[in-house]
Design a protein that fits this description.
57% helix, mainly alpha, 5% strand, elongated, two-stranded antiparallel sheet
């Protein structure tokens, strides 16, 4: 039986690959900064704005990495799916959706950090 060798991902098939890399770096940077900035945050932060007002919206400050982590997973998954899709328009939609998710997750994380952080 031959040894298993994974196929390399052809990045030339992914449109806007440079922007995809920037989105990956932004997500990763915000996640790292969130962990490094824990000493400036209160023990509980308002993270879940979609829930009823009050204590249900609160989470411990360590969970502030969640929006950008989910955006990073979404970005990577969409990039991988873009390599499998044949239509160029669909590839662009997948990549742009990942970038938009990164943008909104970064805005959310930074806004919460600036609202409740003590500098």
């Amino acid at each position: 039986m031959p040894a298993y060798s994974p196929k390399a991902i052809d990045t030339k098939k992914i449109p806007y690959f440079a922007i995809l890399k920037v989105g990956f770096l932004v997500n990763f940077s915000v996640i790292v900064l969130t962990f490094l900035g824990q000493k400036y945050l209160p023990p509980q932060i308002p993270l879940f704005y979609g829930l009823a007002q009050g204590e249900e919206q609160l989470a411990t400050s360590i969970w502030l990495f969640l929006p950008n982590s989910l955006a990073l997973i979404f970005l990577v998954a969409n990039g991988l799916v873009a390599t499998l899709v044949d239509e160029e328009f669909m590839k662009k939609i997948l990549v742009v959706a990942g970038i938009i998710a990164t943008f909104f997750a970064t805005i959310t994380t930074l806004k919460i950090f600036l609202l409740v952080g003590s500098f």
